[in-house]
Amino acid sequence: MAKVIDEALKSRIQDLAPIIEKANQLPDLWLAFKARIAKDPHILSKSSAACHLTRIAFERDPIIDLSPYDLSEELLAKLLLDAPARTVHLETLSLSGNQFVGPDLLRRIIATYPALRTLHLLNTPNIPLKVKLDLVR
């Protein structure tokens, strides 16, 4: 599995289709991929393929925990808002501990995911408490 992940991370986005097809045949590959990204979240800012694959890995998850990743707003937008891999069934999202996420991105995330019912925003200093309360009402 590590070999497939390494190959995917080094690939160009346009060359990922056969790798993704192979990945979908390996039952635990997406879990292993998420673990790999959790170990080195900075790879998302260095590799377009990593960002694209992470969107796919989260695509079917009703619960996404991005708290281990201290991602910029730009990367969060790529992961959560960019097509084609959009998790329309997202019910729970954790952005706790993210030092970069702001109110505008949070509004866009809430608008994008109508099924979103739980949002974890502990220790997100760029979003004032009043804004958090107003957004979830």
Terminal CA distance: 43 Å
pLDDT < 50 runs, ≥5 residues: none
Supply the number of helical segments.
Answer: 8
Mean pLDDT over all positions: 87
Helix content: 40-55%
Number of strands: 3
**Which class of secondary structure composition applies to the elements?**
mainly alpha
Cross-sheet strand order for the largest sheet:
1-2-3
Q: Give the overall shape.
A: elongated
Helix-strand topology string:
HHHHHEHEHEH
List the helices and strands and how they pair.
Layout: H1 2-10, H2 17-25, H3 29-39, H4 43-46, H5 48-58, E1 63-65, H6 73-80, E2 92-94, H7 103-112, E3 118-120, H8 129-136
Parallel strand pairs: 1-2, 2-3
Write up this protein.
This protein is mainly alpha-helical and 137 residues long. 51% of the residues lie in helices and 7% in strands. The protein is built from 8 helices and 3 strands, in the order αααααβαβαβα. Helix 3 crosses helix 5 and helix 5 packs across helix 6. The chain is elongated, with a radius of gyration of 15 Å. The termini are far apart. The model has no long low-confidence stretch (mean pLDDT 87).
